[in-house]
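Regression test case RT-17, inverse folding.

Input:
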């Protein structure tokens, strides 16, 4: 029932609404973008090393368990 009360938006009105909302977007500065990219790269390296370590430990445990069988 609530959908029946909604007014249809014309394509022109939709485009005007999109332009209005796009004008409110605050883009990051070049410095913020570079800083964020460096942070993401550092976190990627740390997490990849962490998961490499976990995978190595679990792999060793599985290999050890398989030698017992």
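Golden output:
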């Amino acid at each position: 029932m609530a959908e029946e009360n909604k007014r249809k938006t014309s394509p022109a009105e939709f485009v005007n609404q999109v332009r209005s909302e796009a004008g409110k977007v605050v883009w990051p500065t070049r410095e913020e973008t570079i800083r964020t990219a460096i942070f993401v790269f550092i976190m990627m390296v740390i997490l990849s090393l962490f998961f490499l370590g976990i995978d190595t430990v679990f792999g060793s445990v599985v290999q050890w368990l398989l030698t017992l069988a």
